Amino acid sequence: MSARIISGQEVALQIRGEIRQEVEGLKSAYGISPGLVTIIVGRNPASVSYVTGKQKTAKELGFYSVQEDCPEDISKADLLALIDRYNKNPDIHGILVQLPLPGHINETDVLYAIDPDKDVDGFHPVNMGRLMIGEALFYPCTPYGIQQLLIRSNIEIEGSEVVVVGRSNIVGKPVAMMLCQKAKGANATVTICHTGTRDLASHTRRADILIVAAGRPKAITADMVKEGAVVIDVGVNRIGMTPEGKAKLCGDVDFDAVREKASAITPVPGGVGPMTITMLMLNTLNAAKRSLKCQ
After folding, report:
1. Domains of the chain by range and CATH?
2. According to a count of CB atoms within 10 Å of the terminal CB, is the N or C end of the chain lower?
3. Catalytic residue from among 55, 117, 118, 121
């Protein structure tokens, strides 16, 4: 029997409906809209596509949305000055700088320049530290999306054996910290695996919930998955082109084989991906509410 498909598209639409209602409430009660600025440097096609999607979603949800298109050769000083301007702008509640940045600009310096109260990506060390101690202002968007997929799909997290494959600051580390907190929608026993892990399969086969962010196509095969496990595939890998000229995508999990053993699984595309932008919007909404002290 094939696994139940966990649709990120469906869950994201549900959350966006909830966000839209709250935005209307904020406008009605306080006369404000959540404000989001996206800053992009240069014209990297993937970055342009990501930012366009974020701006489109923000406008659909009734946000005040601003996009700053900076030239490839902008100086670090000018970029930091731009960020500082939005740090001080009360109409902007969330600041997102699209990565990667050109080589002459230190990404760490730029991310650290964002006001932690407007860091809706959740990557500032202050916000990462708050996450670690269970007092997060904002959760990084992809891990937040994974947690919401599990919760809203009625997957039992508390007491479960969770194995995370990948230790990036964007997905692996934060999702592990989120799911091991003594809190609702967490309280799991979490193992982090990575390139230095000996006998990866011995760990993944223990997982009740397997979260894979390895960055390698079909790295997790059916023999590495426990019967009845829930599998969350974070990977997006280009493996060729369709006859129509579109990119063919696959995840870090061998989907067709693993779905015959898992109880539930996310597809690629259409799984974790749609959740990431949605959680960015939720973080921005929450930043706006925090600015009003109405949370």
Report:
1. 30-115 (3.40.50.10860), 141-273 (3.40.50.720)
2. N
3. 121
